[in-house]
Amino acid sequence: MTTSNWEKVLKQVKHKDAKRKKFTKHNKPMDRKFGESTKKCTRCGRFGGHISSYGLHLCRQCFRETAEKIGFKKNN
To answer: Can you tell me the distance from the alpha carbon of 19 to that of 39, in angstroms, rounded to the nearest whole number?
Structure first.
């Protein structure tokens, strides 16, 4: 179940307190406190290949595209 589907069903049961509580308990996506899924690219939203050095928070693909604009030079 995707997040959008979860929110859609939650709208349908929002007036029924008991059903809403039970639904959110069992179907709400888990809040991540650590791990790969907490760090995602600010530009495209990917999880893998995350560069968080210098507060960039970009995936490696987005970093390659924007590196020169940010001020990084390519060493040969």
So the answer is: 32
